[in-house]
Amino acid sequence: MKVAVPIYHDRIASHFGTAPDLILLLVEKRRVIALLELHLAGQSPAARRHKLIALGTEWLLCGAIEGPVRSQLERRGIRVSADLKGPYAEVLGQVVGISTEQLGRRAAQG
Hints:
The chain is an alpha/beta fold. The protein has one domain: 2-Layer Sandwich (Nucleotidyltransferase, domain 5), CATH 3.30.420. The protein contains 4 helices and 6 strands. Strands 1, 2, 3, 4, 5 and 6 form a 6-stranded mixed beta sheet that branches. The radius of gyration is 13 Å and the shape is globular.
């Protein structure tokens, strides 16, 4: 499963539309198989949406998100869990069930 998390430093970004970075994780059997960090700064909501779709994202964990963007993602089969807060590694652990250690150095550095 591909899980995307818009981030600001080591935390879930407060809003999908303003997040400077995105972490994309490939998760299998609650283990992180691969992790990719992408820069989103300056991209429009439409460009961000298209990027998630093009990457094959299956689940978006985020803070706030515009209603129309959320609807468009959900229509494309992307599960959206919004209004999340806190360090992204902790949220991934709580929501997806993976451990912080599996995220390696990126989560520890913040």
